[in-house]
Amino acid sequence: MKINELRELTKDELQLKLNDFTEEMFNLRVQKATNRLENPMRIKAVRKDIARINTLLTEMERGNNGK
């Protein structure tokens, strides 16, 4: 997801997305361990999405709102 799309979401929606991406990351790691991973670049994309969401949550917590 792009950062602009994430900025439009509320804190609760971001938490839900974070949970979804964390679960997806777990599933991707299991697939990698069992040699069933079809797209290895998806791990990198999900990891970056998790980092983006964590950054936005931190900004919201500090009151910066990305500005």
Describe this structure in words.
The chain is mainly alpha-helical and 67 residues long. The protein has a single domain (3-62), classed as Orthogonal Bundle (Helix Hairpins). It is built from three helices and no strands. The protein is elongated and about 45 Å long. The relative contact order is 0.17.
How is the topology of this model organized?
Blueprint: H1 3-7, H2 11-33, H3 41-62
Short description:
This protein is mostly helical and 67 residues long. The chain has a single domain (3-62), classed as Helix Hairpins.
Count helical runs: 3
Instruction: Provide the CATH architecture.
Output: Orthogonal Bundle
Indicate the percent of residues in helices: over 70%
**How far apart lie the N and C ends?**
20 Å
Q: Major sheet, described briefly?
A: none
Count of individual beta strands: 0
Q: How is the CATH topology named? A: Helix Hairpins
Q: Spell the H/E element sequence.
A: HHH
Radius of gyration: 14 Å
